[in-house]
Amino acid sequence: MPVEALFPLITYPDPTSAGSVASAVKAARLIGARLHGIALEVQVPAVSNALSGALVDVRKLAAEAEALSRKRGEELLRTISSAADEAGITCETEMARAIEAEFGNVIATAARYHDVSFVGWDPLSRTVRATTEALIFDSGRPVLLLPETAPEDFNHIAIAWDGSRVAARAVGDALALFGNATRATVILVTDEKAIPDTKGAERLAAFLTRRRLEAKAHYATTAGRAIGETLQAEAKAVGADTLVMGAYGHSRLRQFILGGATRGILDNLQLPVLLSH
Question: Which InterPro entries does its entry note (predicted)?
Fold first, then answer.
């Protein structure tokens, strides 16, 4: 049974790049996923200020923004459909209309009917970040962050391990998603925080070995680096294709309070990262 992957396409204020679309299609092909692209078309809320009409044609500007968003959405859906056809994968598309502040709610709800969400990561886009945080903490499904450079493979997975619930959840999600993987490296950073089970990396590696993966434990220190940087650097150092980790954080009045590792990954994504909460 193929994996069902959701891919949100941002149209406003800045559109999802062609590189991100190509990366998502490549990821879907590598894991044998069916892709569902949803273009988020902006709805500009009405302005009730009585003076707005005298100062500037607000309605006209809103209509123009909505028309541009719709045009970008249609173009993105054509782009992803064409790329999926060329890659030989199944892809369905649709448009969803909402005010920008509700993009996260719309896509997090849609994600609950999929196995995973792909995100074409753009650290400079506040809309992409807000949508991604909603997916991570509200959808109940894992999120695969994709750099604009397309992934080469998902054969060797690195797992950030601290023995926590979210880390265990991430392992389960990774095993379901990366069914063709043959290697796994369990990374335990020893000096970032207290780890109750100091043998946990070996225990997890043994479990993964019983799952017919070539698995080993890998211990590391931050050496003055931020934890997000450390995990990604160590994953690349062992030759992993992607990093798997639990996402820490919670939402307070829709303002997300992120854990240090999660925040560090989002601030400087260096390779594909699967986040589970």
Answer: Universal_stress_UspA, UspA
